[in-house]
């Protein structure tokens, strides 16, 4: 098949899915927005994939490019780019045109308005919806997509990259006594909540655990300095793996996280985890009490309690949690993601 992706912000896990599609013999074309400065991934695309810069095409030129490519499936990131909508309108009824989105249904005024406008804004352009999981499926249903035309599993971690790392926790001698945060330094990620809970815990408990933080962003210069906290900046995936081998528990305190592929990545890598209930991916990759703990969004006391519970667990219990995370993480892979694309192509 010829598959056209009309994308906004690319990430390395998406490239893993593209690689799988190319290995299956498909031709993949990707139009993308500029790389996010806060997540400057360096992408290595397979030879069978062709990448186009969105900034190089006006609306009419993008439509002509799409017509020349003559795709069998078109997948577009949401409805924010009007030129992407125009391409999908052209192909709707001829081939599957798939809208991806990761928004949760919250029922606020903007979402209610989009629910009303959907027949004119969305259904003129899209025949199907592809969402990460159950929180987004509810939104797609409210937008008027029929259940049979909604697929889950839009995001998949690069499981082959992360899964071999699980042995550093499941088979560790002395379990690594370090929490690790991976994400941007922005308010939505709740790092201020994590730092507050951590500093309180350090004052209240005598323990040897550390907190390592990976990422960058607007608030990086305001990062909290403490002997037990390390700030490692943004790391490319291969360098990140080296850091992960020295850490034991993943923590994500987000105030707002529509999905959070990093949760899937860390599950595949065998991390027990502490995650806020605002993180969408926790619905699929965290079984509370089995491979980690969830805490109520914004509740610093609950976050601190969850961190304390992890600190007090014996090594063998941490290893069991690590193994349980790994099992959940490998339950969905880029290969399965590629199969979903193929299924759209035969609908």
UniProtKB/TrEMBL annotation:
All copies of domain Glycosyltransferase subfamily 4-like N-terminal, residue ranges: 17-150
CDD domains associated with the record: GT4_PimA-like (cd03801)
InterPro entries: Glyco_trans_4-like_N, Glycosyltransferase_grp1
MF-aspect GO terms: glycosyltransferase activity
Top-rank taxon: Bacteria
Pfam families found in the cross-reference section: Glyco_trans_1_4, Glyco_trans_4_4
Keywords on record: Transferase
PANTHER family: SULFOQUINOVOSYL TRANSFERASE SQD2, TRANSFERASE
Name this protein carries in UniProt: Glycosyltransferase
Organism expressing this protein natively: Geofilum rubicundum JCM 15548
Classification of source organism: Bacteria, Pseudomonadati, Bacteroidota, Bacteroidia, Marinilabiliales
